[in-house]
Amino acid sequence: MFSAAMEPTNHQIAEQLNLMSELLEIRGENVFKVRAFSRAADIISRYGSPLAPLDEKSLASIPGIGKNIAGKIREIVDTGTFRELEEIKSGIPDSLIELLRLEGIGPKTVATLWTRLSVESIDDLEREARSHRIRALRGFGEKKEESFLKAIAVYREQSGRMTRLEADAVADRVRPAFTPGTYEIAGSYRRGRSTIGDIDVVTTEPAHVINPRLRSLADEVIDEGDKRTSVRVLGKRVDVRFSRPQQFGSMLLYLTGSKAFNIRLREIAISKGFKLNEYGIEDRTAGVRREFSSEAEIFAFLSMDPVVPELREDWGEVERALTRSLPELVRQDAIRGDLHVHSSWSDGRLTIEQLARKGEELGYEYIVCSDHSATLGIAHGLDAEAVGRQSHEIELANRSSSCRIIHGIEVDILADGTLGLPSRTLGDLEIVIASVHSGFSQERDIMTRRVLSAVENDHVDIIGHPTGRILGRRQPYAIDMDRVIDRARETGTALECNASPYRLDIDDVEIRKAVGRGVRIAIGTDAHDPSEFEYMRYGVTTCRRGWASGSDVLNTLGVRDLLEWGS
DNA sequence: GCCGTTTTCGGCCCGACTGTTTTCAGTCG
């Protein structure tokens, strides 16, 4: 939560509206009203600029937000909450919301359990299920009791969304069930999200072939059918949809999502007199169904440009596709170098010489060697004297390498906003990345000013992993990214998209905000080990999700232009 | 609650699977 004196972030506003949606759902309110709140929350959490300063009229002009919700947003900004939310909260225990997180339990079930058995929490539910008091309710039976207990166990064991690496591990476990070339992994995995909830697969092989294979390699079969089968692997859900080859495009489109994108596309279809589903497109009057073996045919049929999976979030891409004005996104093959790697001079594994070889192998024009500075006991950080010695070694390596090692540093932004190396030393370096590695719990305004002083430092070229998040382990620190972005534009400082799958920092939402305001993005793998250079693809995907074009991304510059930019 | 080149009222994406029912409600994606 936030103090009354401080303006709420879009994320905080969205959380309240989302809570409202869930409470209304438990109360059995009109599903469209429920959806309106949930949709508004979704839109707000991805909205490019802060809503807090906007008046009611401007808020209501945002698609998906009407007069009513606009008023509630103003209330949140002014008072920290809104009256209607407080009223409904006072009648429903907080702990009921958590019950909604259990697999197979939705608002109707929660309401029934609560009103009939006074179940208010997961612990209550477990007790009632174990003592077989649930099967006494109409519509509930033995199987439901078992599935509730199972859902509780899964919930307690699960640690939420997967990193890209964990998702790859789950995907690799199920791939052997499918014949190469006959399937595709869809869902948020295909859209390139920085974290993945579950794995979705579309296959053209029939269920009677695939189901036995899935059964043998899965840890658990959740449900099994001719059209869809769900299993659990490594504690994560894997959904498989079976499709005829001539309908593969429709099924892939449907299962890739996002949900919001699918809804938008189906609305477009309706407006043209069609019904769109995972089997094809039907003429609403004639009832004739057209089938599509590829997604491209569907987009063409709807008279829109094809939308790449990374953009499918209902974030304005549908309108742009209809007017054939989608942006040209940055591509992996336009990347000419890695802007953040570590060598054995600090905590990396490769020597300078080996970095150069690695860069040649990857076809890079350059690699920025950016070891840690020697502050705060970070493993083997470099002091001013070591930077000088490292410079000689880099010079030597560059004599015999087609990949130029650029002499950089990842210097600490200290708690007071000063940098971990003297100005003279930083002036000798070709590229300076400044990052926060300590004091994560500083108050928002202090942290923001701390990072701003690095942005304003003449020597600093790039702000490293700007929010400091570690996926699944550490929340982003409190920072006003809007102020950072605005100041970065004024000073020509780039923001990093740290491509490590444990970070992906900054993420799509901030990238779109930054490039929309003319701030360059620097993709760095932060590689400490030769295997980590391939993280570049995660960074490129994240930038594409943030609507970044080639010219928005520093890595597309040639070595000469990059050095000129950095000087 | 939101929205409107048919509409300011009456719509709101669409289908699969389970468990509990005897034809469907609830949940999920």
Task: Give the topology.
Layout: H1 10-26, H2 31-45, H3 56-60, H4 67-79, H5 83-90, H6 95-99, H7 107-117, H8 122-130, H9 142-157, E1 162-163, H10 164-174, E2 183-185, H11 187-191, E3 195-196, E4 199-203, H12 207-217, E5 220-224, E6 228-233, E7 236-242, H13 248-256, H14 259-271, E8 274-277, E9 280-283, E10 289-290, H15 295-301, H16 317-322, E11 337-341, H17 352-361, E12 366-372, H18 384-399, E13 404-412, H19 423-428, E14 431-435, H20 444-456, E15 462-463, H21 481-491, E16 494-498, H22 508-516, E17 521-524, H23 536-545, H24 559-566
Parallel strand pairs: 4-7, 11-12, 12-13, 13-14, 14-15, 15-16, 16-17
Antiparallel strand pairs: 1-3, 2-4, 5-6, 6-7, 8-9, 9-10
Helix pairs in contact: 1-2, 8-9, 13-15, 20-21, 22-23
The structure holds one DNA strand of 29 nucleotides.
Question: What do you see in this structure?
Answer:
The chain is of the alpha/beta class. The chain has four domains: 10-139, DNA polymerase beta, N-terminal domain-like (DNA polymerase, domain 1), CATH 1.10.150; 162-242, Beta Polymerase, domain 2, CATH 3.30.460.10; 256-322, Beta Polymerase, domain 3 (2-Layer Sandwich); 332-566, Metal-dependent hydrolases (TIM Barrel), CATH 3.20.20. The strands form four sheets. It has a seven-stranded parallel β-sheet. Strands 2-4-7-6-5 form a five-stranded mixed β-sheet, with helices on both faces. A three-stranded antiparallel β-sheet has the order 8-9-10. Helix 13 (248-256) crosses helix 15 (295-301) and helix 20 (444-456) packs parallel to helix 21 (481-491). The structure holds one DNA strand of 29 nucleotides.
